[in-house]
Amino acid sequence: MEETDLVPSKESTLRSCTGVELHSYYWYPKDNSTPRAAVFLSHGFGEYLLTYGRVTRALLDHNYLVFGHDHAGFGRSGGKRAHIDSIDQYCRDVECHVSCVKSKLRNMPMFIIGHSMGGVIAVSTGLQFPSLFDGVILLSPGLAIDKKFNNSTMRFLGRTMAKIAPGAGLIQLKAAAITSDPDIIAKYVDDPLIYKGRLKAGWLNAFRRGVDDVNRKMKKVNWPFLCIQAGNDPWIPAAEIKRIMELAASPDKKIVVSLSSSVSSIINHKTVNGKTN
């Protein structure tokens, strides 16, 4: 959850693979200069793309074209709130959007930045469409879930509830687990576009299936990637993320654990001089 005053150069709608209207955003470099590359932003659970103002601004300052959409069920996009039947729905939406943009950019390099849920979407999309991106950047990707939320009892409960009551709320996310910045926490609480309800049984079960599938296929990852993981994340265990990412066959990979970060959204973590890490 970040500054949301960075006005997009363009906003439009894109029809998803399931017929849902996705709200999309585009930011172009200043002075209409030719971008170094294009970057798709894939946001985390409950968020929407405008909450990534800091990372967007940093990319624009370095002459990148930035774009993306609110995933189905979040932000300004249509669809049942915080619900998905399969993570593949998110991935097909990303592939459709990125392919559309790539067709207009000739041979410009294409990257994806994915945070938390968005990181899982990024890896899964890269596995399904290995030539789609020239590189992948992962910020605390949700490829592992802390055992207190992902033990055998919770998994059984999730599978059972997903069948009989997929809309039932199971786990409540707290703003303090997303950012350490009190101003951003206040904005998070007041922002009506941020989903602040519980993780639903149906969504959680679909997400876990997606994570399990990605973990089984990590050895097939052969594209370049950078993974930056918060060292003291209450939801995503750093040691497990490091183990999973090291399974990748890619010869061009870098895994960084930010020990000073104690919250999930490391893109919101500030240094003492107020600048974003």
From TrEMBL:
Residues 34-256 form the Serine aminopeptidase S33 domain. InterPro entries: AB_hydrolase_1, AB_hydrolase_fold, Hydrolase_4, MAG_DAG_Lipase. This is Serine aminopeptidase S33 domain-containing protein. It comes from Ramazzottius varieornatus. The lineage of its organism: Eukaryota, Metazoa, Ecdysozoa, Tardigrada, Eutardigrada. The gene is RvY_10206.
